[in-house]
Write a structure and sequence with these properties.
Radius of gyration: 22 Å
Strand content: 15-25%
Strand order of the largest sheet: 1-2-3-4-6-5
Largest sheet: 6 strands, antiparallel
Number of strands: 13
Number of helices: 13
Shape: globular
Length: 374
């Protein structure tokens, strides 16, 4: 058995034991000599146990595990895994002083703490990082917010009612950027508004919400009338939800179905390229499927600001950071090599991301995740 398969099997056994009600007893049986010798496997085992404990309200900090792994402080992979689990649950995780607080408690882990805190800050791992504090029923200009459809490091997406045109829309709300020009963001959104295609989510308008410190992008709400409830719109779901994040059967896309979906997406992307618009963040999370199965590509031209975290428990989210010769924007698992180097994405970058997306649909896992098997 290869190491990746061993990690998956052991982690699954730990999670199954917690689900069955006897998780407290399983960890010690998993820590065999073979596991203790391999740093990556040990990190996976301890992380699986810690996540289960945190989900049940237990404080699964690194110190808890020293009693079962006495030399834990000298095991950097395991320390980083446990610190990342803790950081995700800390209310002060976004504060500049969080690293000093962790070092005061764990002076022997200073290097691991710097790595984890730096990673967390750079890659926008806090899904609350873009939260606006708004609630259903809030009014912003001519919009009434109804249901929050998503939240990411970029901001929030709401199902909203446009009272001026009497229609439901998907309203993206973004904090005004401090690290690049807001007018550039709005210009990109307005360029995307010129794209008209059956498989591209329409951008209606974009602008500022005065006095709120927010930008808005008003887009088409992807959905179809419910066949069972007159007057109710059934909202579509992303391919990330349907094929990768575990909604329904994992890897639910058979090769023929995946090919049909991606053909429509490729034609839509080709239309955008012909009009001089590059997407820059093609991934399953940005491809929506209507209830009847029509794929719709979202967030054209918005990769700089619309780098969403792909869901609870996922390790691969969108990023927008300074690195190399420019700004890296997109999603690491799906971006082309030139994007990772900080170069501006091109149509060829989109083609690369389309290929990786097809691979993800066929396997039901993120392409570079240890849960994907060859």
């Amino acid at each position: 058995m290869c190491m990746d398969d061993q990690m998956i099997e052991i982690a699954d056994r730990i999670r199954d034991a917690w689900a069955a009600g006897h998780g407290e007893d399983v960890l010690s049986t998993m820590l065999t000599g073979e596991v203790l010798e391999e740093g990556a496997v040990l990190a996976e085992v301890l992380q699986a146990d810690a996540e289960e404990r945190w989900d049940r309200g237990q404080e699964a900090i690194l110190e808890r595990y020293i009693s079962v792994v006495p030399d834990l402080i000298t095991r950097p992979e395991a320390c980083r895994a446990l610190l990342l689990c803790e950081l995700a649950r800390r209310e002060d995780r976004a504060e500049p002083e969080v690293a000093d607080r962790l070092k005061a408690r764990l002076p022997g882990c200073a290097e691991a703490i710097d790595i984890v805190v730096g990673f967390y800050a750079s890659f926008g791992a806090s899904v609350e990082g873009g939260a606006t504090g708004l609630e259903p029923g809030s009014r912003l200009g001519g919009y009434e917010l109804r249901d929050r459809l998503g939240r990411g490091s970029f901001g929030e997406v709401w199902r909203a009612w446009d009272s001026r045109l009497d229609r439901e829309v998907a309203l993206k709300l973004l904090p005004e950027p401090v690290d690049h020009d807001a007018d550039t963001v709005l210009a990109e959104a307005r360029a995307a508004a010129a794209l008209i295609h059956d498989n591209i989510v329409r951008v209606h308008s974009a602008g500022r919400i005065e006095g709120a410190g927010l930008l808005y992008i008003d887009t088409q709400l992807v959905g179809e009338p419910s066949p069972d409830e007159p007057g109710v719109l059934e909202v579509g779901r992303s391919l990330e939800q349907l094929a990768i994040a575990g909604v329904g059967q994992r890897g639910a896309f058979a090769p023929r179905r995946a090919a049909v979906v991606l053909e429509c997406v490729c034609r839509a992307v080709a239309t955008a390229h012909a009009r001089g618009v590059t997407h820059g963040d093609i991934k399953p999370g940005n491809i929506l499927l209507t209830p009847s199965g029509r794929p719709m590509v979202a967030d054209f031209g918005l990769a700089v600001v619309a780098c969403e975290v792909v869901g609870a428990g996922s390790a691969i989210g969108g990023v927008s950071i300074e690195a190399g010769p420019g700004r890296i924007t997109g999603t690491p698992a799906y971006m082309a090599p030139e994007q990772a180097r900080g170069e501006k994405p091109t149509p060829l970058s989109d083609v690369y991301s389309l290929g990786v997306t097809l691979l993800a649909l066929l396997t039901g896992a993120h392409p570079f995740s240890p849960t994907r098997r060859a």
